[in-house]
Fold:
Amino acid sequence: MMYRAPLRDLSFVLHRLLEEQPLAQCPAHAEYSAELADSVLSESARFAEGVLEPINRSGDAEGAHWSEQGVRAARGFREAYRQFIEGGWPQLRAPAKIGGQGMPLILATAVQETWASANLAFKLCPMLTYGAIHALEITGAPDLKARFLPKMVSGEWTGTMVLTEPQAGSDLALIRTRAVPQGGDLAADEFRLFGQKIFITWGEHDLTENIIHLVLARIDGAPEGVRGISLFLVPKVLVGSDGRLGARNDVRCVSIEHKLGIHASPTCVMAFGEREGATGYLVGEANRGLEYMFIMMNAARLAVGLQGYAVAERAFQQAAEYARGRLQGRSSAGGKGAAPIIQHPDVKRMLLEMKAGTEAMRALTLYAAWQLDLAESHSDPAVRARSQALGDLLIPIVKGWCTEFGVELASTGIQVHGGTGFIEETGAAQWLRDVRITAIYEGTTGIQANDLLGRKLLRDQGAAMMGLLSQIEQELAAGGPEPARSLLKEAHAAVGLLREATAKLLALGAGEADRALAVAVPYLMMCGFVLGGWLMARAAKLVSADAAPAAQQFEAAKLASARAYLLQLLPRALAYARIVAGAADGIAGVDATLI
Amino acid sequence: MMYRAPLRDLSFVLHRLLEEQPLAQCPAHAEYSAELADSVLSESARFAEGVLEPINRSGDAEGAHWSEQGVRAARGFREAYRQFIEGGWPQLRAPAKIGGQGMPLILATAVQETWASANLAFKLCPMLTYGAIHALEITGAPDLKARFLPKMVSGEWTGTMVLTEPQAGSDLALIRTRAVPQGGDLAADEFRLFGQKIFITWGEHDLTENIIHLVLARIDGAPEGVRGISLFLVPKVLVGSDGRLGARNDVRCVSIEHKLGIHASPTCVMAFGEREGATGYLVGEANRGLEYMFIMMNAARLAVGLQGYAVAERAFQQAAEYARGRLQGRSSAGGKGAAPIIQHPDVKRMLLEMKAGTEAMRALTLYAAWQLDLAESHSDPAVRARSQALGDLLIPIVKGWCTEFGVELASTGIQVHGGTGFIEETGAAQWLRDVRITAIYEGTTGIQANDLLGRKLLRDQGAAMMGLLSQIEQELAAGGPEPARSLLKEAHAAVGLLREATAKLLALGAGEADRALAVAVPYLMMCGFVLGGWLMARAAKLVSADAAPAAQQFEAAKLASARAYLLQLLPRALAYARIVAGAADGIAGVDATLI
Structure:
C-alpha cells in the first residue's frame, strides 16, 4: 500500500494541541507561522510519498552493496538523494548564519516523521549529517567550519557519528582508537588516527563525493576513561584549504553488516589508519569529545524517538488498509457474506491501539521538540532555562518509550494481517524488522533510563519532573466538557500514580543506585504512557469543545483514539507503578550466577 | 552459542511442581514413571542438541528450495530426519495399538520443547504428522487406517494439515476447494479434489517418499458454510491396496513463501487437481470435516503454545550467555575494569523476565498437557470429565499467552545484546523472526480469545474457570514458609482480580457479543499471567520448604525467578483487569470508518 503522510494530525498537534505560536516570539523564528509550517509539511509529504516511498521495499530487498571500491547504495537511492538536495531539505534545520533555513526543531521533527515513515533507511543519512553539522557548528574552530560546513549544510557531503568499537558500545570509556598529533595544514590540530570502528551508519556510500566522519579517539597520553576521549573530523576525501577535494584519506569501509532490518542503510565496519594513519582534525578542545558527542546524541535521540512512532504510523496505515479490504467472518452488524475484518472487535482493538499509541507518541515527541526550541531561542532566559530542563527530561522518555512501543505496534501490525503478515512480500514484516533497531541505537532503552534517572531526576531531585506533573495536574483538574470529562479524570489519576512512582524512584535512588536502576526502564515506560495520556486527554478536550462541522470526521476519530488510549493503553501505568514500587530489590539483589 | 535442554527445570516441573505420578494410575500409562520420563528427556535433549541445533542457523540462512521437481529441504535436514526416525521419535506419542509408544502428552510436550528450542523449522514437520495421525486414528475407516497409518506412525511418511485458501484463513466457511465423488478402489469414499491451498507447512519436501495431506474441501452439493466441509486424505503418491507406492497424485507445490522466519520450513502453495483431479479419500463422515480438523487443531494449538516458550528459552540462553561474557561499564559491586553486563541491574531485569516468564509458561503448558492426559486416560470418568473441561479451557490460553509473550521475550533477547543483536550472524534476531508466526498459525491470538470466550467460558457460564480459580485460591490461601509467603499473597491477590475480570467478561458476554470480544485478548493474556503466577508461587513454596543441599543452586535460582515473576511480570494483571473492566465499549462502539 501507499504511504500517506498524516498531515491532518500533524497540523492538529502543531497548531492546536501544542499551540506552538509562541515560537514566533522567539527572535530566531519570527517568521514562523502555521501557514509556513503546513506548506513545508505538504512539501515533505510529497517528497516522502513520491520519492522515498517507492524505493523502500526495493531497498529492503536489495540492501546496500559492499565491494573493495566502496559501498553502493540500493537502486534509486542516489537519485532520491539528489532530489533531496535539490529540494533544499538538508538546510531545513541548520541556522541561517551557516546557510540553513533555521526552521524550528518542532517542524523539523514533523518533517522527519514523514521521511522515517516512508523510508527509514534513507532517513538515517541526513539525520546523521545534521548531527555532525550541529556538533561542528557549536564546537569547531572557524577555519575547520569554513572548510567543511558549507558543503555539509548544502547536503553535497554527508556526515557520520563514529563512536562504537567492538569492545566499546554503551561504554565509551573503553575506546581504543588512537590519535597521534601531526604538524599539518591545520597546524597543531592535525592528527593521524588508527583504529577500527563498527556500527557506523552510512559510514560509506556513493550518494556524495565526500563523507565527513566525526570520530571519537584517544590522543596518545590522554587520561584513561571518558575524560581522555577527543572528537576528530576525519574526511573520507581530504579537502584542501581552497576547498578542493584532494587524495583519499586513510579510511576504509572493511565490510557492512547483514542485519535484521534497515537493509538499505549501510552499517559499516570502518578502518582508520591501515597505512599512514587517517588524517583527522581535532574538533574543539582535546579530551572533551564525549561532551561534544552528546550534543549530537541528544538531537539524534529525539530523532530516533520519532522513528519509533513514524514506523508505527506506517505499520498502522498498512494494517488498517488490509483490514478494510480483507473479508473474513460475519460482522455482528449483520450483512450478507463475510465482513471486512476491521469490523471485528479484536481487530478494532489492535488498530485502535496502533492509531492511538502513534498519535500519543507524536504529540509527546513534538511537545519535547517544542520545548527544545523555546530553550534554544526564546527571548526570556527564564523560559529558556525552564524549557531546557523540560526538554532534557523528555528526551530519554521520548527515545525510550516511542521506540519500545513502536516495536510493539509494528508487531501488532503483523498480527492484524494474520498469516499474510508473515510473508515478506506483504511488507508488514519490514516495519518490525526496521523499527527493532530504534530501541537500541543512539543508546538502548536501558541507557535512556539510566540518563533519565541519573541526569534528569536525581540531579535536580525531581524538580523538573515534579514541576511538569504539577502543571499537568492543574490542567487536567480543570476538567472539560463531555465526552472528554471522564477521560481527563483517567489521565489525572495516572499522573497521580506517576508522581508517587517518581517519589519512590527518588527514594530508591537516594540509597543504592542499583535498586533505582533496576526499575528505571519500567519507570521510563510509565512516564511515556502517562504523559501520552495527558496529551490525548487534552486532545479529547479540544475536540469535545469543538463544533466545526467540516472537521467532524477528524474530530470524531480523534475522540475515539483518545478514548482508546486512555482506556486500553493508559492502564499499563498501573502495572508499571506496581513494578517501580515493588520489584527493585528482587532484581538488584539477585546474584547474577542464579540467572 | 549452543543450546542446552533445561532438563533440570523440566524434571522439576514434571515431578515436583505437577507431581504427575497419578498418571501411572491411568491404565494406558501404567508403566509411566519419573525415571522413564527423565530418560526419554535425556535422549530428546541429545537429539535436539546434537542433531537439530547444528542445522538451525544454516537452515535459517539457506531456507528450503523450490523447483518444478519439488521442494528440497535445507542441507542436513534429510539426514536429521533419518536420525529422527531411527531414534523412534515419531512413535513417541502414538498409541500402542497403532505401533506407537503411547507416551503421555505431558512427556511428549516436554520432549517437543527441546526440539522447538533447537530448531523450530524442523519441529513443525513431525508436529503436523502427529496431528494427522491423531485425526486419522480417531475418525478414519479401518481400511484407510490400515493403508496409511503404519508408515505415518513409523515416520516413513509425513502428514500435513491443509486448510487455508487465499480467501479462507481464519474463516474456513469460505473454503472453495471442490471434491467430486468417484467410484474407485475405496469405493464410495474416493473423490477427485480441485482447488488451491496456501500456507501449507511442510506441504512438499524430500525428507520422505510420500506425504499424506489431510485436506478440507467441499463435496459438490454440500450445504454452504462450515457445515458443508469434509475432510479428505490426499496422498502425494498414490498407495495401492498392497501398500505399494504407485503413481504421483495430481497434487503439486506451486511455490513456497518468502517469510520473516522459519525459513527451513517450506510454507507451500499447493495445487490440487490441475489435471484430472487429485485422488482423495473421505475421512470419517461427509460434512464433518471441520469438527475432525479441530481434533488435530486442539493438539496442534498446545504444541504451538509450547513453541512460544521454547523459542523464548532459546533466546534466554543466548542472551544470558552473551551477558555473562560482554564487558561494558562498571559494576556497582566494584572491581577493576569493565564488568560483565549481567551484573547491571537493567540487564538483570531483562534476563529475569525472560527466565521467569519462560519457566511460568512451561509450567502452565505442562499442566494443561497433564490435564489432557488425565482426560484421555484416567480410570475415573469424573476425573476424565473435569480434566477435559480444564484442558479445553487452558488450550487457548496456552496457545495465545505463550506465543504472544514468547514474541516479546525473543525481542527482549535482542535488546540484551544491544547493537550486536540486530546483526543476523549473532543469531538473536532469528528467535524473534521464527517465533513471530506462533501467535498467528493454528489460529491467531484473536481466534484463541474467541474460542476461550465463546466455547470455554460462556458455554458453561464460567464453571470450569471459576472452579479452577477456587481450587487455586484454596491452595494459595494455605500460605507457606518464608520467603514464599509474600509471593503466595501476590499470586492470591491476582487470582482474585482474575475472578472479578471473569465475572465482568461473563456479564459483557451476556449482552452484545462484540463488547466481550473487544476485551477477550486482554482477558486471555490476564489468564496466562495470573495462572503462571499461581504455578510460580507454588514453585517458590516448594523450594522454600526444601533444604536438600545438593540442589541449592537450582532452588535458589527458582526462588529468584519466582520472585521476579510475581513482582515484575504479574503486575501486568492490574492493567489487563482495568482494560477488561473499562475498555469494551470504547472498542466495540467505534465506527470502523473512524479508524
User: Anything to note?
Assistant: The longest strand of chain B covers residues 187-201. Chain B has 19 helices and twelve strands. The radius of gyration of chain B is 24 Å. Chain B touches chain A through 97 residues (CB under 8 Å).
